[in-house]
Amino acid sequence: MDGFERLKGVILTSGIRKSPVTSEHELLRIKQGKISIVVYKSGKMVYEDNADTMKIINQIFVHHSEYDYELGSDEVGKGEWYGPLIAVCTALKPNDVVELQKMGVKDSKQLSIPEIHRLADQIRSMNILFTVTILSPPTYNEMIVQFKKENKNLNELLAWAHSAAIKATIDKLQYQKIRVVIDKFDVEKTFRRLYGGVYILDKEKVEIIQKSKGESEIPVAASSIIAKDIFEKEVDAMGNAFGMNFRKMNPQDLPKSILEKVAKLHFKNIQQN
Q: What superfamily would CATH give domain 3-60?
């Protein structure tokens, strides 16, 4: 249940009256005594910083206090024929989770590009630890070829990218218990990458959760925002380098000489070029 649903629950149980919204951009407005909260359709929440309002706010935002850190992992770029694959793992302390909820952090697919850049900058300004795995098109293509030779598919590459970001993040933490949430894509391959190989995670200390629609969890949403922010900037840089707007082009419009530098070659629309 997200913050908005929890807020509606608090309103129902507390007898607080909703006020009429004052613009088309508002989703919910509460004004009763010193309590003042406005929720916008963008997901942003504005509220008065006083004891009465904060009592309501603190009921809305929750975190798992039994963990030293909550980690979230997500990737961007697997669906685009152009640009890199970006996997990000973000590590949040319990208070960070609450602060990001208040900031309006949510699944990057629900945000505009300007909102993504703004929130990514805010997350960075909080000195929150995150690790990025970037597979540029040439590196991505090389790895896909190698994985296919080993009878491994795209999900195996995604599992590698996620586990690389997760393990690198965990390496930088001191903890007794952490929770890692991954936007689910292939449970078996991901667990094998995380709990196998040379570097094996301690199951007693590291709880791994693979969850459909994982971006509903704040740590995963934060990772999705950072990953999307980096992806868009990488695509902008790639476009500037070649003088092209890849977002508005078809692969057939590109010179074959640059395809391996900017495109994921295993995509069907690339192979038809």
A: TATA-Binding Protein (3.30.310.10)
Which one of 3.30.420.10, 3.40.910.10, 3.40.50.620, 3.40.50.2000 gives the CATH number of domain 69-235?
3.30.420.10
Is the distance from CB of 237 to CB of 82 less than 8 angstroms? no
- The span from the CA of 262 to the CA of 72, in Å, is 28
The secondary structure of residue 270, as a DSSP letter, is H
The CA distance from 50 to 60, in Å, is 15
Query: Chain centroid to CA 2: how far?
Result: 15
| Amino acid at residue number 269 | N
pTM, whole model, 2 decimals? 0.78
What tens digit of pLDDT does each residue of 53-107 get? Answer: 877 777 666 555 688 999 999 999 999 999 999 999 999 998 898 889 878 888 8
